[in-house]
Design a protein that fits this description.
The chain has about 475 residues and is α/β, with parallel strands linked by helices. The protein is built from 20 helices and 16 strands. The N terminus is likely disordered. InterPro entries: DPD_II (IPR028261), FAD/NAD-bd_sf (IPR036188), FAD/NAD-binding_dom (IPR023753), GltD-like (IPR006006), Helical_ferredxn (IPR009051).
Length: about 475
Amino acid sequence: MAKSPQKLEMLKFVEDGQAYPEKREPGLRAEDFREIADRYAPDKAAEQAARCSQCGVPYCSVHCPLHNHIPDWLRLTAEGRLREAYEMSNLTSTMPEICGRICPQDRLCEGNCVIEFSGHGAVTIGSVEKYITDTAWEEGWVEPLQPGRPTGQSVGIIGAGPAGLTAAEYLRVAGYDVHVYDRHDRAGGLLTYGIPGFKLEKEVIMRRVQRLKDGGIHFHENFEVGRDATLEELRDKHDAILVATGVYKAREIQMPGVGAPGVEKALDFLIASNRKSFGDQVPDFDNGRYNAKGKNVVVIGGGDTAMDCVRTSIRQGAKSVKCLYRRDRANMPGSQNEVRNAEEEGVEFVWLSAPKAIEGTDHVTAVRANRMRLGAPDASGRRSPEVEPASDFTLEADLVIKALGFDAEDLPDLFGCPDLSVTRWGTLRVDHKSMMTNMEGVFAAGDIVRGASLVVWGIRDGRDVTEHMHRFLREKKLAEKVAA
């Protein structure tokens, strides 16, 4: 049986090879904080979208936390129906252009593409997703947020990161009066202050936030729960609360000298850099504390935050940048794409190495480390690093950045609410059927529940918690009517 014309437009993965948008030369892109890749030309985006096999069981969608309708909007893109492709993409995600930029597609959709399994290279899903929504913004297809019919109820959301912003949008569309409280002076959480511009330019986030503000969502910035109001005071003010603070407490490393000047936390370093990108006054950057210019930088860690730190250091003009990681390349948690980008830009990776001590009293001068080897698998399935005997070595360092991940802050004390229940990891304990904490009407979503995770999972949690909060608020309103 002959294939239909529509099918002939697809299934081009044999004749057309995988092609991502062209990256700028490493030497040029290391001079600024702009995104490193150019955009697809329209014909190239259509060509790559046409490589989709339109398989019966789309593993790309299955392995996307949002279960985006990926084959559908790839087909629409291939057919030149770009506005419909955007509308399809927008059905399941509040931030498709952000996910297209920062999701680890190599571990999610693209890593599970059937074309990848066949040896032809995955469809470039993330780059097409970014292209579709960037075009939608330029063409005016991104419609203003339209609030639903007022319900007469209000919701307070603590945290303006991916989970909080997603829930805020959906709840506003449902007709609630939505107030977002955040400790920073700009919304966006780690999207704004944790992720560098070379991965996610700040205007991309700010236009999303502005759309929410224009839709009537009230943002209370520079607002700290526990300082400006307790959790109980916010509960009295709103009909329901969502805690979506993320996890911000840096994991520490125990070794001699770790408190020496010049040993810094990754997030403090990244926030200072991002604030400079906004044009803010940052005294601790200007005095050199969070500025890598002319310094020998050693970053400890192997996740995406470590990659952000090494690549930021390059752009700040570091003399040398080394990443110290205790496992090998195959067992690191960060994106392999980010490792390649970092290597291209001049970062040196010191694999199978772990810090032993910091040298220097008035200021750090070096990191003393051990060579490591991989032993038996641990509980996570990864092989455990073990110290190689008599393997000490030293790395010269003027700035050491600890990028070992994040844990939850002590929210019960921070919020002035000792009754708020937490797990042994410090994350909020919730009923996973309702996403509600042990406190009536107080819900939680995102990293503060699941631990440090991906932006896309924050968006998914924000979407899911909206349904539970909506159900709770309807039942509360009905109960109040009956009582009256």
